[in-house]
Amino acid sequence: MPAIPDISESEWSVMEVLWDSAPQTASEVTKSLRPTMNWAENTVRTLLTRLVEKGALKTGENASGTRTFTPAVKREACVRAESQSFLDRVFGGAAKPLLVHFAQNSKLSADEIKELKKLLDQQLNS
Question: What pTM value is reported for the model?
């Protein structure tokens, strides 16, 4: 399994597009991002190049010979790495203060609380 690269917030937006549908060309990624980011294609190309250099994306070619981009890492692995980084930075690696913080400061519905309780109970019994 490849090492999980450190992905910036802007790069994460590009990765989300490609995790949703790949392979895509730089123009296709730009078109997908335009409604929310309004980035120029050169900006997207710069982000794509960085992601290739970091090992987060692989390149190929479509039938017309245009360069395409495909994720080289799974979203779940990046989420796990980012979550651990956040936990380490903000809560010193301890999960309990994180859970207490979110339980006390989030507006959780009854269904969300039941789901979290079920997950915690499963952890207790495993």
Answer: 0.80
